Amino acid sequence: MAGGKKAKSMAKTAKGKAKETTGKALGNESMEMEGKAEKMTGKAQRAGQKAKDTLKP
């Protein structure tokens, strides 16, 4: 996996987790849902990159 793309996807996952936790703590459901969505996007990007790396000769 390319280092830059890996770092970006991990950062997105971490940012989403932080936003989700903050939303829970504040009782803000929309912030919590945004965080979950960001976290899932980061995980999906990482999975896609891993799949690409697996298929490379």
Walk me through the structure.
This protein is an all-alpha fold and 57 residues long. The chain has two helices and no strands. Helix 1 runs antiparallel to helix 2. The radius of gyration is 13 Å and the shape is elongated. It starts with a helix and ends with a helix. The mean pLDDT is 90.
- Which stretches of 5+ consecutive residues score pLDDT under 50? none
Quaternary structure: single chain
Distance between the termini: 13 Å
Helix content: over 70%
Instruction: Report the sheet with the most strands, covering strand number, pairing sense and barrel closure.
Output: none
Gyration radius, rounded = 13 Å
Element pattern in H and E: HH
User: Rough shape?
Assistant: elongated
Number of helices: 2
Q: Compute the number of strand runs.
A: 0
Provide mean pLDDT, rounded: 90
- In percent, how much strand structure appears in the residues? under 5%
By secondary-structure content and strand pairing, the structural class works out as mainly alpha
Brief synopsis:
This protein is mostly helical. Helix content is about 90%, strand content about 0%.
Attribute tags:
57 residues; mainly alpha; 2 helices; 0% strand; elongated
Task: Give a topology summary.
Blueprint: H1 3-26, H2 29-55
